[in-house]
Specification:
mainly alpha
Length: 121
């Protein structure tokens, strides 16, 4: 019998980290950066969905007394507070489309742009 023990497969012979891994337990795969970019991307998408859903509900003349419709309107108003009455049209549908559509597009552009920038870090 020999006292030889095989070397574990995930370590180098000199005890240093394996290629692609950093010492002190931090992975070098950038998963935290990818997660942060995904969160930014998702928040922008959710904001745009609420704004788009409010536009759709308004244009389809959804019941304003409904709890869900009121909730969507409240969230959309909170997200689009800065763009209210940028466009003052005589047609209510067009006014809502532009005043809530503009922030939806801006949130998407900024959110996806920032997420892409974070991914490059």
């Amino acid at each position: 019998m020999s006292n030889y023990e095989p070397m574990p497969e995930n370590q180098r012979y000199d005890g240093g980290p394996v290629a692609g891994q950093q010492a002190h337990g931090r992975g070098g795969d950038g998963s935290a950066v990818r997660r942060a970019a995904l969160v930014i991307h998702t928040v922008a998408d959710i904001a745009a969905v609420f704004l788009g859903l409010w536009i759709l509900l308004y244009l389809l003349e959804a019941n304003q007394g409904n709890v869900f419709v009121g909730f969507v309107e409240g969230v959309a108003d909170g997200l689009a507070w800065w763009s209210q009455d940028i466009f003052t049209m005589d047609t209510d549908g067009l006014r809502v489309l532009l005043n809530y559509g503009l922030p939806a597009v801006i949130y998407l552009l900024i959110g996806h742009g920032v997420a892409a920038r974070v991914r490059r870090l």
